[in-house]
UniProtKB/TrEMBL annotation:
GO cellular component: plasma membrane; side of membrane
Gene source species: Prochlorococcus marinus (strain MIT 9313)
Protein name as catalogued: Band 7 protein
Origin: domain of life: Bacteria
Residue ranges constituting the Band domain according to the UniProt record: 19-177
Family affiliation: Belongs to the band 7/mec-2 family.
Amino acid sequence: MEAFLGLPALLLVALLGSGSVKITSGGRSRLVERLGKFDRELQPGLSFVLPMVEKVVSYESLKERVLDIPPQQCITRDNVSIEVDAVVYWQLLEHSRAYYSVDNLQAAMVNLVLTQIRAEMGKLDLDQTFTTRTEVNECLLRELDEATDPWGVKVTRVEMRDIVPSRGVQQAMEQQMTAEREKRAAILRSEGEKEAQLNEARGHAEALVLDARAQQEALLLEAEAQAKQQSTLARAKAEAALEIARALEASPRAEEALRLLLAKEWMAMGEQMAAAPAGSVLMVDPQSPAALLSALKAFQKSDS
């Protein structure tokens, strides 16, 4: 009879003993209340609680967690409707403060993030929401971290994933982008045509300059050649005249032959001198070799 009565007692003690042993995993925490009042926080490892007196009221992870914020309709400063969603990374630092400060921590954080996102989007124009995303993320991080500090929560990072304007705004943006691309293309085409025309004009001008220089050099070369030719011819004539003069001085008999030669060629030389546009005219009597000799000597002096 005593053995029969002792069996239920042993079972009761075993059940109570198994409920009083608590094993907490790493990175997690348990809150224990004693008679309805917070008593302690169980750290990772083996712990014991008093049956019927103490109770574990919360079992939470202390690791960093991800809070997915659903898409939220927002109005920008220029009255454009957009849809924004975000991701919040947070960590529970003080389990007891989070449990006793707010009833539903995750729901409270979602509502807080949505409120902050709407407030920040209302401060920006539509274009700024796309260009200042990093600044908005940093601002949300500061504000959320400050707001959740009384709950024992640390917000480590905030990332806005998608900013989607309404369908009408998207069509207007696409038209604007198309017009901007067409404008840039037209500008590039006009600049290309302008550059081509300028290059063509420069090439034509350079060709004219080179042609003019070539003609000028050709004229200079031709003039120099003619001058050298005339100078050479004049020297040859002068030397020939001197030879004739020397012959006359050396042989008086050559005077008669010279007179006949001069009489033959005098008419042709007179015609050439008369047709010349400018120059000196040599007036000599063809019958007087002495006069011819004097004229040749004078011509030699003037040529030198």
